[in-house]
Amino acid sequence: MSGRRTGQTGRDRLADAILAVVVGALGMTVAAFDEDTTALDHALIGLASASLAFHRTAPRAVLAVATVLGTAYVVHAHPGPLSALPVLAAVHTAARVGHRGVAAVGGAVFLAGYVATGPGTQDVAERAGLLAGWFLCAVVTGLADRNWQAYLRQTEQRALEAERTREEAALRRAGEERLRIARELHDSLTHSISIVKLQAGVAVHLARKRGEEVPPALLAIQEASGEAMRELRSALQVLRADEPAGTPALLVERARAAGLAVDLTVAGEERPLPEAVDRAAYRIVQEALTNAARHAGPAKVTVRIDYGTENEGELTIAVEDDGTGDPDRPPVPGTGLTGMDERVTALGGTLRAAPRADGGFAVRARLPLGERV
Length: 373
What we know:
It contains ten helices and five strands, in the order H-H-H-H-H-H-H-H-E-H-E-E-H-E-E. Helix 9 packs antiparallel against helix 10. A five-stranded mixed β-sheet has the order 1-2-3-5-4, covered by helices on one side. The chain is α+β, with helices and mostly antiparallel strands. It has helices at 10-32, 39-50, 59-77, 85-96, 100-117, 122-209, 216-240, 248-257, 275-295, 335-346, and strands at 261-268, 300-307, 314-321, 350-355, 361-368.
């Protein structure tokens, strides 16, 4: 059995069985009124009709079976035009899935057998012409049905594409709005903290000028406001320019210069990455090293970047430390971990950030590499 195979539902199989039964019943009924019909003729009609139940899975094979059995029937019994029903149905279904040439050949073979076995009278010629018209209609309607189904599939695809485009545009607008709000908040907070730092500095200066003891709370305010200013400016710089300002290797060198013990390992063939993946990898390493510097204490940190050796088609980033992380007390995700997770999820990857079983903390991200650039 040959032909194009397609997935079938229970409803499709039931419809195919009904088609075979209806065509077979019509053929058997017409043959019953012919006194010369034999058991062989009934068998040929039944088998030709039964083959139609498989027209979805093997349209060309069904056409061949129906044509051979139908032609054998007309050669043996010389019936009327309705004997062509199984072949007509097979021609239509074959043309419907794109086998136009095979459908035309099947119809021509049956017509040749029908004309060759009948007496050369005008009545036979008229019947043959009528059958030829039927077969032509079967081919045309099959092609029309095929084009209509293709049009429906194309329309559905366009609708899905339009919906996906709308969703992407909405997500982009939402991201732009969140970025705008974040920038305004940072600008506003930076200004307010600058005023606090300035006032605290003036108060400290005046106290020292008068020879008075500077209150510890005032010094704490001055120090905390300065630290907050530096962090806010750093965050604002990231928001205003989301492009990486270097490479993960440069981040590791900066961390080492700041006193953090960091080892970097690169596995696989290092190569240029898609822009979005490159930016996400940079930010993940940056945030993981920042968290290690703040929370791990005097710990050793390892950074491993794998270009597809663990899993072909993925970039794997692992940042681990042997610091104070406790598996019994998992941290509450803050802005940094949430941001990493959002970046990885947006690229279709996975992120795991949690304390290690033997102490310390581990960040492991998998990012799809896509096509090489």
